[in-house]
Design brief:
With 205 residues, this protein is an all-alpha fold. It is 62% helix and 0% strand. It has helices at 6-13, 18-32, 39-46, 60-74, 85-102, 107-111, 121-134, 138-160, 176-197.
């Protein structure tokens, strides 16, 4: 009878949990794409029977939702009072793009989740507080979050493509060496546009 490797024995001996399953799902998705994430494949990744996963996550849809939460948790989001709102916006936009580059095959799951999704709540809540402090109305604070997020998502999807691969034949193909400068230019344009929406009597915080 073949002997199990020490690494496999260690993996099997670790207690199964939702967090451990989702960490394995992220690893599997990064390596092989979202299509490869099945309950059976996760069981193999973790060295357990697939049926044992259902005690923690009922189906693949729940796994994918959980992955979105894991990815959002990786974002570097400063406290609302830590930076002036323009620099806060630049910092979070850069963090969002960096997340996409760490997980190119999974990023479209985040893009496809609405801002109202529970997984987005901490990031959205911080953004709303930042923009309200800057002087935006409740409605415009939501719009500001949406505009900033949409810019980053569009830029990144142009860089990476829908499945984490560079787009070919794109109307705007960037030289990778110029992508950083182009991204900074775009974020500055977003900040300038938002600043222009503040009325003269409003303050920027």
């Amino acid at each position: 009878m073949p002997r199990e490797s020490p690494s496999r024995r260690s993996m099997i001996s670790q207690p199964l949990s939702r967090a451990r399953i989702l960490a394995a799902a992220v690893r599997l998705g990064d390596r092989a794409g979202v299509e490869a994430i099945t309950m059976r494949a996760l069981g193999q990744e973790l060295g357990v029977e697939a049926m044992s996963l259902y005690h923690h996550l009922p189906n693949k849809a729940a796994v994918l939702e959980g992955i979105v939460g894991v990815l959002y948790a990786e974002l570097s989001v400063p406290r609302a009072d830590a930076l002036p709102w323009p620099e806060w916006t630049r910092t979070v936009c850069r963090s969002y793009r960096a997340l996409a580059h760490r997980h190119p095959a999974l990023f479209h799951l985040v893009v496809g989740s609405p801002l109202s999704a529970p997984e987005a709540a901490p990031t959205l809540g911080a953004g709303l507080e930042v923009f309200r402090r800057a002087g935006f109305s409740d409605r415009d604070a939501v719009f500001a979050c949406l505009v900033a997020a949409t810019f980053v998502e569009g830029f990144v999807l142009n860089e990476l493509g829908q499945a984490g691969r560079p787009l070919t034949g794109s109307p705007i193909e960037l030289d990778p060496r110029k992508a950083e400068a182009a991204f900074s230019f775009g974020v500055d344009a977003v900040v300038a546009g938002l600043r222009a929406k503040l009325t003269p009597h409003q303050t920027e915080g």
